[in-house]
Amino acid sequence: MMKNLLxxxxxxxxxAVAATTNAQKATKIGHIDFxxxxxxxxxxxxxKVVMEKYVQELQGQLQSMQSELELKGTDxxxxxxxxxxxxxxxxxxxxxxxxxxxxxxxxVAQQDIQTKQSELVKPFVEKAKKAIGEVAKEGSYSYIMNxxxxxxxxxxGGDDVMPLVKKKLGIQI
Length: 173
Hints:
The protein is mainly α. It has helices at residues 2-25, 34-40, 44-79, 85-138, 162-169, and strands spanning 29-32, 143-146, 159-160. The protein has a three-stranded parallel beta sheet, with no helix packed on it.
């Protein structure tokens, strides 16, 4: 009786393992280089031009502030020996304050650049994600992963869906 029970249990375990293996094989995984897709989407050249202009404007403002700092520093060095202590302290405070404003400007400018970049790229990201979702449904994919990021520790390859998504978006590159 015990031997029969063990045989039945072994058969059930084998059937469960076989069913699990078959279920795992039904999962279809694809991958895509999302960054490369975004670069190839029409309109990205406009984003680059807008960002370059924006960065140049900020750099111009920063350059102006740095020139002012250099002038104040040079003036202070040339004339500090003949200045009274009150004027000397005032000039030093002006220079220190300007250095602080420059540092604050640089930090805010970096944040503004990131915000502007995100703002300009967001419509492209949404459009690409929509196309990827459509390709996934049409191709019966369970997962599509970004091939560049280290999100998968093991992969048996999967399918590169870049050509399908580019076709969906009308990209001819």
